[in-house]
Write a structure and sequence with these properties.
The complex is a heterodimer of chains A (491) and B (240). By secondary structure, chain A is of the alpha/beta class. In chain A, the strands form three sheets. Chain A has a six-stranded mixed beta sheet. In chain A, strands 11-10-12-9-13 form a five-stranded mixed beta sheet. In chain A, 44% of the residues are buried. Chain B has 240 residues and is an alpha/beta fold. Chain B has nine helices and ten strands. A six-stranded mixed beta sheet of chain B has the order 6-7-8-3-9-10, sandwiched between helices. In chain B, strand 4 and strand 5 form a beta hairpin. In chain B, helix 3 packs across helix 4, helix 3 runs parallel beside helix 5 and helix 5 packs parallel to helix 6. The longest helix of chain B has 16 residues. Classes of the chains: A alpha/beta (491), B alpha/beta (240). Chains A and B meet through helix 15 and helix 16 of A and helix 2, strand 6, helix 3 and helix 5 of B.
Chain lengths: 491, 240
């Protein structure tokens, strides 16, 4: 009979193997030219859903960040004689990441607003774009002037300069979402009727998606300059960047980059059949599944161990331990996991200089969060074990710890296995929030495919299907374990 | 072997034991009888500190076990206990139930523990059940296994807490037979029971408890034959 005891070392070995197979950084969003660790690098952060400035492309089945901003970054790295490392993350995570020192600079079509200047320093401007109004082609005649947008429903990207412009439109009902592809989805699904877009970005969308058009209306004062952000006070880096920008400006190189990038962006055509769609982008999903599995497995493992310790502390006679355990459980269960994730990843970094990689932050958050739920499940399980079991074990001379370990906990876990299984399924699903800080998990890759293909439905349906397959396999495994553990029940 | 001095135990305001004094000799079989709520089970459970005493002292083989500094786990290895509800470990086989404590606590090799367990099982007539799980056994079988589990630690004394009270009547005999054999082999035993026939036959000494004190003690002939105390007479008239 296969026993749990023997399963644990097997699981551990599997995990170690999985870890060993991972890239050293433990960070999928990192792209770097191969080089030794002695080589100096510069880390640039960007949000690659902003074609033609920065976007993802499939190159040999793998995703790669390209775009005019990437070309500028490459020039800067070349002039500084260092290796360029690209970190992808959502646009509103960029400034926190810069402030906490995870990245050295942001080149992500960022406009140097006064608000941002309070938090970061900017280089000279490298490009100035205009803003346009993107609408459905059928409605394009409705919006000949900005007045027509009065009271209209408008979509924008959260934290962007377009959001500010939209907020300036009288009576506008502004919907702000995380990515450009989300804004486009809002538009195509009639949730908003117009969207404020960067000119070249809008052109790239119009070219790739039928049914969209740029309206005649032009937002006032819509010239939006772009600059490169660095950590506040890092004048040395600003100066070096400005030298490169000066060189590029002399030859109008940036215009050329944008044109090149625009041509690149129209290359990818997505299959219209979901199966061939999946097959074409399977590389993305395969990468994502690995991270989702790693995160969930470690989250479950550590959550299990921590949860057990917390449950035992909660049930111990020592008042102070009990109090700490109760506080731990209540805080972690009573606050959103997203908030916990952001505090661990950005909060600790800026306040105490504790810098976890995105993967570490993700694993830590999942472990802590699940441990609180598991602790309560274990507590219920332990309390349900007959009191006589502990007495019998103690009467044989077993110390409390040994009695818990060999007699009480195995029975407790068996009793609450369905609840534990539930929690494991929850962890697999909830692990998707780590995409928020840029862990390249399944959700992250699904979003990457959305951006890449301008397709709103397939990438998400495929991701949902993969999550479902994973959770179904897990439930089956747990059923099997449950049957094995109930060996003593048959009569 | 066990000396009990002025033992007191309260649960909150409820005084269950109000000063017990007695001594249990090596090889002696002491049977504790008395009405429900007289404190006899509590008295037994205090002897291996499953209940923490509130006052008084218990000496085991010359050492105080009620002293806070005393390592009770080591002492418990020498004091086997059998419970009313058997308390076998349901997730372990019979053999595992028996060998778990010797291998974990006394550095006995699995092989030696198995050999010992099998000979003990043989002596209670359950050798064929070694790979069964507790749920597959009858109550009488479970209790015999529970006795074997305690014996596997080679205890110096065995404590029995109403070992037949949870059994169907037809299974009481098989458990009592095992206990009788144990007594004949010279095991020191303290037994809380309602089986008066058994007490009379096997006991070297009978302790009658009521209201948290020892009312009367003596040989079975003295206590059953000529009870001195009114309360003893009253109790015996109801149960005999």
């Amino acid at each position: 009979m296969l026993k749990v005891k023997r399963l644990i070392p097997m699981l551990m070995a599997l995990l170690i193997l999985m870890l060993a197979l991972y890239p050293g950084h433990g960070q999928a969003s990192t792209q770097s030219a191969s080089g030794t660790s002695e080589e100096k690098t510069i880390k640039v952060g960007l949000s690659p859903d902003f074609a033609p400035y920065e976007f993802l492309m499939t190159v040999d089945g793998k995703s790669k960040v390209v775009g005019s901003d990437v070309m500028i970054a490459e020039e800067i790295a070349k002039d500084m004689g260092v290796t360029l490392v690209i970190e992808q993350m959502s646009f509103d995570s960029l400034i926190p990441a810069l402030q906490s020192g995870r990245i050295d600079m942001i080149i992500s079509g960022m406009t140097p607003t006064d608000e941002r200047r309070q938090n970061v320093d900017f280089s000279d401007l490298y490009y100035t774009s205009r803003q346009v109004i993107l609408t459905r082609a059928a409605d394009v005649d409705k919006y000949k002037t900005m007045d027509a947008l009065d009271g209209e429903q408008i979509g924008v990207q959260t934290g962007s300069i377009q959001e500010e412009i939209a907020n300036g439109i009288p009576n506008a009902q502004v919907t702000a979402v995380k990515t450009i592809s989300d804004v486009v989805s809002l538009l195509t699904s009639d949730r908003v009727n117009a969207a404020v877009f960067e000119g070249p970005v809008a052109e790239s969308q119009v070219k790739n998606r039928p049914g969209l058009a740029i309206a005649e209306a032009v937002p006032e004062d819509s010239d939006t300059p772009m600059a490169i952000a660095v950590q506040k006070g890092n004048t040395e880096l600003v100066n070096e960047i400005n030298v490169t920008l000066e060189r590029l400006r002399a030859t109008d190189a940036v215009d050329g980059f944008i044109q090149q990038a625009n041509e690149l962006s129209s290359g990818d055509t997505a299959p219209s059949n979901i199966f061939s769609f999946f097959w074409k982008y399977r590389g993305f999903y395969a990468d994502g599944v690995q991270y989702t599995l790693l995160l969930s497995a470690l989250g479950v493992l550590f959550g299990f161990i921590i949860g057990l310790i917390v449950a035992i502390a909660r049930l111990s006679g020592v008042k102070i331990l009990k109090w700490i355990a109760v506080a731990y459980i209540e805080v972690l269960r009573g606050t959103p996991m997203l908030v916990q994730l952001l505090i661990i990843h950005f909060g600790l970094a800026s306040a105490f200089d504790i810098k976890f990689t995105v993967l570490q932050s993700g694993i830590l958050t999942l472990s802590l969060n699940s441990s609180a739920y598991l602790a309560e499940i274990f507590r219920a399980g332990i309390q349900n074990v007959d009191k006589g079991q502990m007495e019998a074990a103690r009467s044989l001379g077993m110390p409390r710890g040994m009695a818990l370990r060999t007699i009480i906990i195995p029975q407790a876990i068996k009793g609450v296995l369905p609840a534990i299984g539930n929690e494991f399924v929850v962890i697999i699903k909830e692990s998707s929030i780590v995409s928020f800080i840029g862990v390249a998990d399944l959700m992250f890759q699904a979003n990457a495919v959305r951006t890449l293909t301008y397709s709103g439905l397939y990438p998400l349906v495929i991701a949902a299907g993969i999550y479902l397959v994973m959770t179904l396999i897990l439930s089956q495994l747990l059923n099997l374990l449950e049957r094995r553990l109930s060996a003593g029940d048959n009569r | 072997m066990i000396t009990v001095n002025n033992l007191q135990k309260s649960f909150g305001k409820n005084e269950v034991l109000r000063g017990i004094d007695t001594e249990i000799q090596k090889g002696e079989v002491v049977v504790v009888i008395g009405p429900s709520g007289s404190g006899k089970s509590t008295f037994l459970r205090c002897m291996n500190r499953l209940e923490e005493v509130t006052g008084g002292e218990i000496l085991f083989e010359g050492k105080s076990i009620t002293d806070k500094k005393h390592n009770i786990d080591k002492t418990r290895e020498k004091m086997g206990m059998v419970f009313q509800q058997f308390n076998l470990f349901p997730h372990k086989t019979v053999l595992e139930n028996i060998t778990l404590a010797p291998t974990k606590l006394q550095n006995v090799s699995t092989k030696d523990a198995n050999v010992h367990a099998e000979s003990l099982l043989q002596s209670v007539g359950l050798a064929d059940k070694k790979n069964a799980y507790p749920a597959q056994l009858s109550g009488g079988q479970k209790q015999r296994i529970a006795i074997v589990r305690a014996l596997a630690m080679r205890p110096h004394v065995m404590l029995f807490d109403e070992p037949t009270s949870a059994l169907d009547p037809e299974m009481v005999g098989e458990v009592l037979d095992v206990m009788k054999k144990l007594a004949e082999d010279g095991m020191t035993m303290v037994i809380v029971t309602h089986e008066m026939g058994f007490a009379r036959e096997v006991g070297d000494r009978i302790i009658f408890m009521d209201g948290g004190v020892i009312v009367e003690e003596g040989t079975p002939e003295e206590v059953f034959g000529a009870p001195k105390h009114e309360r003893t007479r009253d109790f015996l008239s109801k149960v005999l």
